[in-house]
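Batch job 17 of 40 flagged for manual review because the log was empty.
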Amino acid sequence: MSRPDRRTPEAETYRPWYKTARWQKLRWSILVRDRFTCRRCKRVEPDTSLLVADHIKEHKGDERLFWDRDNLQCLCKHCHDSAKQSFEKTGRKRAIIGLDGWPIDEG
């Protein structure tokens, strides 16, 4: 059973940016800058396919925010796909659990 496409029409304009060599180069520079370490859970991840160059402030097609190095952070896929995506969809934060099993204070 196929899922309905949940992307907005505006996403159709910026989604192709993620396929460019420019984005791949920028993504790599963010992973290196952050030393392959998730900014939320602090996990060091040697498998770069499990890391995301995440936009801190949603860009929603704003090219300035999309390409801004200061608006990017390294997150592991788990933190990005669970807590960060949940917050963006609902506006409510979920607790981030560190490698030691305790919640991480993001303050």
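Reviewer: the log was empty due to a logging misconfiguration, but the result itself is present. The mean pLDDT is 82. Unflagging and moving on to job 18.
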